[in-house]
Design brief:
Order of helices and strands: HEEEEEHEHHEEEHH
CATH architecture: 3-Layer(bba) Sandwich
Helix content: 25-40%
Number of helices: 6
Strand order of the largest sheet: 3-4-5-6-7-8-9
CATH class: Alpha Beta
Oligomer: single chain
Shape: globular
Length: 189
């Protein structure tokens, strides 16, 4: 009997050991890998959060960085590539609503961005139309290359400005994020 209990305990312990490269994070039915490779750099999932507006669950977002941090400034300004992944959970994210949300996010969190990055913000906002349940936006930021936006795996455009990436990240991580819960989720909180 004792031998059987020891055997069961060993099996349970081995089952609890994470398998490298297989683990992932899940929120609202969306699963994100713990790591992704960008420009030859292995990025780790810093955090995952849910964007809600009133009672509507809009999207689940994940933030990938070279190293985990709970500090928003470090996440926005640290060197190296970064990535944001947004999985949409609704058909209510119309182009008009998304355009307004992007513009409000830049204005509220990156003062002066309209003057410095107005053309880039305008081009970025134009990359996207109505978002549907299941759509995935990936925003990959690589120093010296810029920010590449993809929708459902197809590239929709590049903003070739290194100043754009921190401004974009401030939309979620700045002082006036869409929701504090989303910001804290992305920061691993």
């Amino acid at each position: 009997m004792r031998r059987a209990l020891v055997g069961i305990a060993i099996v349970l312990m081995l089952g609890a050991v994470p398998t490298p490269g297989v683990s992932a994070a899940e929120l609202e039915g969306v699963t994100l890998a713990d790591t992704v490779e960008v420009d030859g750099t292995q990025l780790v999932l810093n955090g995952i959060g849910l964007r809600k507006k009133l009672w509507v669950e809009v999207y689940v977002a994940g933030l990938y960085l070279p190293a985990k941090t709970t500090d928003a400034r470090v996440a926005m300004e640290s060197p190296g590539p970064k990535k944001v992944v947004m999985h949409f959970l609704t058909d209510k994210a119309t182009k008009s609503k998304m355009d307004d949300a992007w513009r409000e996010g830049f204005e509220a969190n990156s003062p002066g961005s309209r003057q410095k990055l107005g053309a880039e913000i305008g081009r970025f906002v134009d990359f996207f139309g109505d978002m549907k349940d299941g759509d995935v936006i990936e925003l990959t930021m690589v120093p010296g290359v810029g920010t590449t936006a993809t929708l459902n795996g197809a590239e929709v455009g590049v903003i070739a400005s290194d100043e754009f990436a921190p401004a974009l990240l401030s939309v979620w991580l700045g002082d006036s994020p869409p929701t504090e819960d989303l910001k804290q989720g992305l920061l691993g909180g």
